[in-house]
Write a structure and sequence with these properties.
two-stranded antiparallel sheet; 6-stranded mixed barrel; elongated; alpha+beta; 387 residues; 15 helices
């Protein structure tokens, strides 16, 4: 189909290339529309990716949470004994508790406080599949020791640099003096600007009002030959209704749904729609001006025997050429903006192949719609206009 479409005299390209300034303006408009769509979709993906980074590093086949649990940043606890009760069920290999809360980290240099997400773990049974954390488990067993997320926001202080220089950094968390004994990488998110991991003992020291028997997440590891769904059904049917049994994927989906329901998804989606409409308007104006300027020539072509269908196909060729040529600078500019955004926010935003394909599809659709609208002017071209 495309071969047949482009095999004749390339009138579409000659038309576009004749007015080079108009072509540059059209490509700039399409690139801007693509860039707007890329940025909005990139931020939306980074929201979900950053919110579920911790979930992706958990070592678990099943997860226990409070039924009212909505997000890691507004935690709901449940009795720790529920996790121990699961050990009695067939197919369960091991269990791990996980404490989660937000504390105030005081920058050791300027003394300004900022909320930071604290993960309390059992050093003898670590829940994260993070080599940098697991190498520091013996040091975490000591009281008031933490491991700092090097991908946290710089407002917490130059902790990674100080740690490399000194081998240890002293700071204050919830007015409790602590020592940073290691670094790991998890990343900031829309809900938390940074993370630290500590032992369950230190966690309870940082949060003195917390009860040791109340945890936020229970991680269940099953035997290699165990049926996940069968064990899950058994646990959900027999455990009290103050806990809910999920797969790690479902646990991450709760976080995604929470942020998606906050209106943020709608805002970013609206930005994509605006970029799409802007692109349609820009391409339509270019094509409409081109058709209006060359209306007598189109009428002459009709008089020579060229059909309306041929001329309309030529206009669609112009639309597709504009889509392809405008998409390339749009991708390049978006990659640059992603890098700037990451440097400023530390959010995990980067170009993805599926996103690029989706925006390319939107660009082709956008330009095609513009071409269809501009065809109405082309249909009015009459051989009588040449006289």
């Amino acid at each position: 189909m495309l071969r047949k479409l482009f095999r004749r005299t390339p009138l579409a390209w000659l038309q576009l290339n004749k007015e080079k300034m108009r072509l540059v303006v059209a490509l700039a408009g399409i690139a801007f529309a693509d860039m707007l769509m890329f940025v909005q979709l990139g931020l939306l993906d980074s929201l979900f990716d950053s919110a579920t980074q911790a979930h992706q590093n958990l070592q678990a086949d099943l997860v226990l949470i409070n039924p009212k649990f909505q997000t890691l940043f507004y935690v709901k606890s449940f009795p720790r004994e529920r996790l121990h009760q699961t050990s009695a069920y067939e197919g369960v290999k091991s269990v791990r508790p996980l404490y989660i809360d937000i504390a105030q980290w005081r920058n050791p240099k300027n003394r300004l406080s900022r909320g930071i997400l604290v993960w309390g773990i059992d050093p003898a049974n670590p829940p994260f599949d993070l080599p940098e954390v697991n190498q520091k488990l013996d040091e975490l067993k000591l009281l008031n020791r933490v491991i700092f997320d090097r991908a946290s926001r710089p407002e917490y202080g130059q902790i990674p640099q100080l740690f490399k220089q000194q081998g240890m950094v002293e700071a204050e968390v919830n007015r409790q003096n602590i020592r940073t004994v290691g670094l790991f990488t998890l990343g900031a998110s829309f809900g938390a600007d940074g993370n630290i991991i500590t032992s369950d003992s230190t966690f309870l020291t940082i949060f003195p009002n917390r009860q040791p028997n109340q945890i936020e997440v229970g991680l269940i590891k099953l035997q290699p030959d165990a049926n996940v769904e069968a064990v899950r059904s058994q646990l959900q049917a027999n455990l009290p209704n103050d806990v809910k049994v999920l797969t790690p994927k479902e646990f991450a989906q709760i976080e995604t749904d929470y942020w998606g329901n906050q209106g943020i998804g709608f805002i970013f989606g609206l930005g994509v729609a605006v970029g799409f409409i802007v692109g349609i308007v820009i391409v339509y104006q270019i094509l409409y001006a081109d058709v209006s300027e060359h209306l007598p020539e189109y009428a002459t072509l009709k008089a020579m025997g060229y059909s309306d269908r041929y001329l309309m196909m030529m206009l669609m060729q112009e639309s597709l050429l504009l889509a392809a040529l405008g998409f390339i600078p749009g991708v390049a500019l978006s990659i640059g903006l992603y890098q700037i955004t990451y440097a400023a926010t530390l959010l995990p935003i980067a170009m993805k192949l599926n996103r690029a394909i989706f925006v390319l599809f939107l660009t082709i659709t956008m330009c095609s719609i513009s071409g269809v609208i501009a065809m109405r002017k082309l249909r009015r071209a009459d051989p009588a206009d040449m006289f």
